[in-house]
Design brief:
Radius of gyration: 25 Å
Strand content: 15-25%
Shape: flat
Structural class: alpha+beta
Number of helices: 9
Number of strands: 16
Largest sheet: 6 strands, antiparallel
Distance between the termini: 43 Å
Length: 355
């Protein structure tokens, strides 16, 4: 089966959008389950913006490394319960640690397309409308690819759970979504365990859950529930009390190569740093002449900044959309070894097992 970006037809031939006839736009560039992680990571609820601005040089267009300096909190074991007035010197050092964040300006996503101006003449759409639709389509493809990359980067940043967390092996916590193996009745286990594990790991906010398949089905059934599970618990009310956000994402399951695995993120614990080439000391660099165009374009709904360039040669326009990016997390040694949160990064891995 062949595929073409669009049909270039004479205006005498009736041309109509596919979605007008089939009730759904199957050519829509972004499906939520392919882009939910990117949408979340770039959202105001997650992105602080401060690290991003420092990496990109506070608007001066210069790529910079950022060294984060921090001091782990003092473990409770360091607090004596006996006061010794005769003590006049301490044996405990108070020092700082550091983590350096850096970004490779040539690692990220890029997509290109070309348009022959002769074909534009016969197209039954205005040139600006056709080009804008093409650019939006290119952005959509770039974001779908970004989401796949982000899934791998976020999973690599996963850390440990809090002290005394149960059913954890090799950084994965096991939860149930059904009362019995192969059954349809929901178990409250996954709601209770995710909620408590997030609290036990010191999450600052209700957890964001990303996964697909079984965990998706469980949360979907949960939304339709208004009654009870084990021990007469109203599971819909239980979920509303937890405040956990679930967002279906097929790329998490693909990276794990296991549809029963999923992750939780403490909003703010993972930050995407980006770099745009077309930024200058004065802000966005805009070149808009007859044969060359350069600027930064924001995705209209996800607020992701893309570098855009277009060049004209021999009757053909070539368009490019690109973005250098990287996901970074909190340092893995932000807590001392004796701390109840030792190893916690605000990102955790789970697996569903209903056996």
């Amino acid at each position: 089966m062949s595929y073409v970006l669009t049909s270039f037809v004479d205006c005498e031939v009736l041309q109509s959008e596919l979605s007008n006839h089939f009730g759904c736009d199957y050519t829509k560039t972004e499906k939520p389950n392919e882009t939910s992680l990117a949408a979340f990571l770039f959202s105001p609820a997650n992105m602080t913006g401060t690290l991003q601005r420092q990496i990109s040089g506070d608007g001066d267009g210069k790529l910079k490394d950022v060294k984060l300096v921090y001091t782990p909190r003092i473990p409770l074991g360091n607090v004596d319960t006996t006061i010794t007035p005769s003590d006049c010197s301490s044996s405990q050092d108070f020092g700082q640690r550091s983590e350096t964040y850096t970004l490779d300006e040539n690692v990220g996503v890029q997509i290109d397309r070309k348009v022959n101006t002769e074909n534009l003449i016969r197209l039954c759409k205005s040139n600006p409308l056709y080009v804008s639709e093409m650019i939006y389509n290119m952005m959509g493809a770039a974001i779908r690819r970004m989401d796949q990359i982000l899934a791998g980067q976020v999973i690599a940043l996963a850390g440990g759970f809090g002290a005394d967390e149960t059913d954890v092996a090799a950084q994965f916590k096991t939860v149930r979504t059904r009362k019995t193996s192969g059954g349809q009745d929901l178990s409250t286990d996954f709601i209770e365990e995710i909620d408590f594990a997030s609290e036990n790991a010191g999450y600052c906010n209700p957890a964001a859950v990303f996964g697909y398949q079984e965990i998706y089905k469980a949360y979907k059934a949960l939304r339709a529930s208004n009654c009870c599970s084990d021990a007469g618990i109203n599971i819909a009310e239980l979920q509303s009390l937890s405040g956990t956000m679930f967002m279906p994402n097929r790329n998490i399951a693909s990276v794990f190569n296991d549809s029963n695995k999923f992750i939780t993120i403490d909003p703010g614990a993972a930050q995407v740093i980006t770099y745009n080439r077309y930024l200058t000391d004065d802000g966005v660099m805009t070149v808009n002449d007859a044969t060359t165009k350069r600027t930064v374009m924001m995705h209209p709904t996800l607020n992701i900044p893309f570098d855009f360039k277009a060049d004209y040669s021999c009757g053909t326009w070539s368009f490019f959309i690109s973005l250098a990016f990287k996901t970074v997390g909190v340092p893995t040694d932000i807590y001392e070894d004796e701390d109840v949160y030792n190893g916690v990064t605000g990102i955790n891995k789970y697996v569903v097992n209903n056996a």
